[in-house]
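Project outcomes to date are best conveyed with an example. Our students and postdoctoral researchers have been running inverse folding experiments weekly, and each run begins with a structure described purely in C-alpha cells. The record below, which covers 139 residues, was selected by the lab manager from last quarter's runs and is presented without edits.
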C-alpha cells in the first residue's frame, strides 16, 4: 500500500512536470508582461493607461494625506472641524467632476483611465491648495 502511494505521487508529479513542458508558454509571457512597468510618458495600450493613471493617483493621494495631516496638526479644534468638512466636500466634488469627464467616454475603454487620471490631476491641485494653507498657518 505504501509503495502504491509513493508510485502514484511520483507518477502525478511527472505528469504535471511534463504538462508544463508541453503547454504553450503564455503563462510565463503574461507574468513577464505584468512584471514590466509601462512607459507612462507615452502609454501605448489601455492597460498601460490604466496602470499609469492608477500609479499617478496613488502617489497624489498619498501626498494629499501627508499634507492634510500636517495641516491638521497646526490647526485649532474649530479649524480642524472646518477642514474636515471642506475635505469631505472636496472629495465629493473631485469624484463628481471626474464622473463628468469620464462620462464623455462612457462605454468606451478610455472611460476608466480618464476617470483615474482626472482624480490624480484634481488631487494634485488640492495638494497645492493645502500646501498654501499650511504656509499661511506657519507664518
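After processing, the design step wrote out the following sequence:
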Amino acid at each position: 500500500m505504501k509503495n502504491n502511494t509513493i508510485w502514484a505521487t511520483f507518477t502525478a508529479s511527472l505528469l504535471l512536470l511534463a504538462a508544463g513542458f508541453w503547454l504553450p508558454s503564455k503563462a510565463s509571457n503574461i507574468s513577464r508582461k505584468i512584471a514590466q512597468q509601462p512607459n507612462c510618458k507615452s502609454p501605448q495600450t489601455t492597460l498601460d493607461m490604466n496602470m499609469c493613471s492608477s500609479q499617478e493617483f496613488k502617489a497624489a493621494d498619498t501626498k494629499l494625506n501627508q499634507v492634510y495631516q500636517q495641516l491638521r496638526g497646526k490647526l485649532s479644534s474649530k479649524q480642524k472641524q472646518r477642514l474636515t468638512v471642506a475635505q469631505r466636500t472636496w472629495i465629493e466634488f473631485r469624484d463628481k467632476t471626474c464622473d463628468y469627464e469620464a462620462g464623455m467616454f462612457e462605454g468606451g475603454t478610455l472611460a476608466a483611465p480618464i476617470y483615474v487620471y482626472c482624480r490624480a490631476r484634481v488631487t494634485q491641485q488640492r495638494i497645492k491648495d493645502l500646501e498654501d494653507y499650511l504656509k499661511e498657518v506657519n507664518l
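The chain is about 80% helix and 0% strand. Residues 1-36 form one domain. The training component of this project remains on track.
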